[in-house]
Amino acid sequence: MIGFGAQGRAQALNLRDSGANVIVGLYPGSKSRARARRSGLRVLDTPEAVRRGDIVFLALSDTKIPVIYREQIAPNLGRGQTLLFAHGFAIYYRTIVPRKDVDVVMVAPKGLGPMVRREFLRGRGAPGLIAVHQNFSRHARRTALAWAKGIGCTRAGVLETTFREETETDLFGEQAVLCGGTSALIRAGFDTLVRAGYPPELAYFECLHELKFIVDLIHEAGLAGMRRLISDTAKWGELTVGPKVIDQAVQKHMRSALRDIRSGKFTREFIREMTTGGRRRARLLRKAERHPIEKVGARLRSLMSWK
User: Fold this and answer.
1) 87, 133, 219, 253: which one is catalytic?
2) β 55-57/42-45 pair status
3) Band of pLDDT at residue 66, cut at 50, 70 and 90
């Protein structure tokens, strides 16, 4: 287990509880060393952990993988070992190129680390994806399925895919719907109400706070199930006004975003930004964090005793 963030920790503990022999690889000054040891896991320096592992899971961010792989993993990787990823980005966009005599597989739980651990402890599991990029051993698929079983994914079900499909759909979902699209929709709704003269507190509750209730319904019952559970006025508004707001122009922009992902344009721009100081990224973050909804939200959340 190279790295011990939220996903790395969850998978390490689930694997341990499933009977696997787990070693955590971290750099000498990592603050995660104490946390891993408190969890009862053996911690070694990254190069030594790589040499001892049958399966080497890179539980690292896309931006950290290239350097750590080049400097600490590749020189210590042996013939017949397995490289395992939770996301296809580094392989699909070739920010790393593994040697040919190792297996390269992916097991991608469809849930954040805390959920992966929580569902495992409840005797359930988070669904997941598996994929094989290199099958040197001829049993790479079995390895991926075994790992998926060890972390609890097979309890909920796994789908077989490819590194390309997982990477492109994951990036698109983040950009167009889950993170980028949702954030932009919330801010646009907030701004529309405030500019029309409504109190920002009301705009916050209607456009951000109550979103969780709807998302929870969708998560549990799907779009049709959510529709059955909301009021008649909300239902009529969803059916008649929603398509006017999220119209063909929005889908046109979505198709453009997908083209940039599939062509590699988004990745080239992202890598260039992250390797040249990240100044534009920092500027955009500062602008987003100065939006009025953040100040209003912080004040309102401080008054919510249940939080």
Assistant:
1) 87
2) unpaired
3) very high
Structure tokens given for 150? 């060890």
| Rounded distance between C-alpha atoms, residue 187 and residue 290, angstroms | 12
Q: 261, exposed or middle or buried, with CB in 10 Å at 0-12, 13-18, 19+?
A: buried
Write out the two tokens for 290. 């100065």
Known catalytic residue at 219:
no
Summarised one tens digit per residue, pLDDT across range 209-255 is: 999 999 999 999 999 999 999 999 999 999 999 999 999 999 999 99
Name, in order, each residue with C-beta under 8 angstroms of 32's C-beta and a sequence gap of 6 or more.
Answer: 3, 4, 5, 24, 26
Report the candidate in 117, 85, 166, 132 with the shortest Cα–Cα distance to residue 17. Answer: 117
pLDDT above 80 for 305 = no
Return d(Cα 154, Cα 197) in angstroms, integer.
52
Residue 162 contacts by C-beta under 8 Å, 6 or more apart in sequence?
88, 131
- Mean of all residue pLDDT scores within the chain: 96
Q: Cβ neighbours of residue 297 under 8 Å, at least 6 residues apart? A: 204, 208
Any idea what the Cα angle at residue 224 is, between residues 248 and 228, rounded to 5°? Answer: 125
DSSP letter, residue 58: B
- 184-202 pLDDT, tens digit per residue, is 999 999 999 999 999 999 9
d(C-alpha 249, C-alpha 245), whole Å:
9
**Which residues share a beta bridge with 84?**
57, 105
Place of tokens 């939006």: 291
